[in-house]
């Protein structure tokens, strides 16, 4: 049986703005996730750098570079493509953030639990 977990209202997720953090209990107590909007679409990832097991955001929910074209790990500066999670600059170049499937429908952003 599939259940829907609502993450936020669509209007709360601003294009290239702050992300929204959310819990993913099936990943354990130590990991959270986040969703950002880039080029009108929501993208979600486990909030863990591909280089070291640390959260990406320095200030809560700040994931974008100042130029708003890449996600950044605040600890050591790895840059990630928002739409793919691919590391394009930094010590983990070529690795990826762990994606979480999200859906936008009827004014909400959600993911499903099987």
Structure write-up:
The termini are close together. The strands form three sheets. A four-stranded antiparallel beta sheet has the order 2-3-4-8, with no helix packed on it. It has a three-stranded antiparallel beta sheet with strand order 1-10-9, with no helix packed on it. Strands 5-6-7 form a three-stranded antiparallel beta sheet, with no helix packed on it. A hairpin with a 2-residue loop joins strand 3 (32-38) and strand 4 (41-46). It has one domain (3-113): Rieske Iron-sulfur Protein (3-layer Sandwich), CATH 2.102.10.10. Helices cover 0% and strands 37% of the residues. It is mainly β and 114 residues long. It has strands spanning 3-9, 20-23, 32-38, 41-46, 71-72, 79-80, 87-89, 99-100, 103-105, 108-113. The chain contains no helices and ten strands.
